[in-house]
């Protein structure tokens, strides 16, 4: 067996083939709406985050599962072209995950998706070295059993675990105590704590699972995080929004980039918000993964939305 190379970050989780369909407005029931184009593009939470980290100069590894169709070929080609070390496991006789995404003129997206159960990553699919030969582990928690095994290995080795949770998948209770940086969508802290106020739910979640950080991304309102001592808030940046698909994926990539640079938390959050905003100026989950210099320029001079906290 060949030696496993050392990387900065390894991601275990979802990939998807997205068909982006721009429309003037979301169709009402029973209506007909003209669409302008249909663009087939690679996406997926963790896969996209690894692509972004690679584009910013980090060494990345991605572990995921695809079918044996043309979409799998698209993913393999994309990772190879970008230099991501990809371990794409194949589910025979199975289509890869796909999504149809309607994007209206305000940039808001509505996602229709399908994922065959055979695409689930199993704990036996993982190699320990894929995880241990990395400085950080990124998960979405979708295939919870495999994510829990990977996070256990990382924890035992002192490797920080970052999670992008936009849903509470079955078995997530075993995974949550293994996450160091729990960065979720807005609704997850309330669902975990029973407390709707983020200023109450984030401390409760952080304490319950002994995380280093609990945070919620808030779309155009930015991000709110709690580190056990104080809250940190970063407002979102004002940009000409084309498509919000992938904004959360790129936010997590930006957070990971800042974490591995050793930046203070406020700078990590600000960089992540700026990277996510710029990605919204293009079409698709990877519509505009901006260079670091462009992200820094937006941080220095870009307008921000009013503070929500």
Outline the fold blueprint.
Blueprint: E1 7-12, E2 16-22, E3 39-43, H1 45-55, E4 60-66, H2 70-82, E5 85-90, E6 98-103, E7 109-114, H3 128-132, E8 134-139, H4 144-156, E9 161-165, H5 172-175, E10 181-185, H6 188-193, H7 198-209, E11 213-217, E12 223-226, E13 231-234, H8 247-261, H9 265-279, H10 292-301
What does this structure look like?
The chain is of the alpha/beta class and about 300 residues long. It has 10 helices and 13 strands. It has helices at about 45-55, 70-80, 130, 145-155, 170-175, 190-195, 200-210, 245-260, 265-280, 290-300; strands at about 5-10, 15-20, 40-45, 60-65, 85-90, 100-105, 110-115, 135-140, 160-165, 180-185, 215, 225, 230-235. It has a 9-stranded mixed sheet with strand order 5-4-1-8-9-10-11-12-13, with helices on both faces. It has a 4-stranded mixed sheet with strand order 3-2-6-7. β12 (about 225) and β13 form a beta hairpin. α1 (about 45-55) crosses α8, α8 runs antiparallel to α9 and α9 packs across α10 (about 290-300). The longest helix has 15 residues, at about 245-260. The termini are far apart. The model has no long low-confidence stretch (mean pLDDT about 95).
Q: What is the structural class?
A: alpha/beta
**Ends distance:** 53 Å
Q: Give the radius of gyration.
A: 19 Å
Portion in beta strands:
15-25%
The beta-strand count equals 13
| Average of pLDDT | 95
The order of strands across the largest sheet is: 5-4-1-8-9-10-11-12-13
Give the low-confidence spans: none
Order of helices and strands: EEEHEHEEEHEHEHEHHEEEHHH
Largest sheet: 9 strands, mixed
Overall outline: globular
Total DSSP helices: 10
Percent of residues in helices comes to: 25-40%
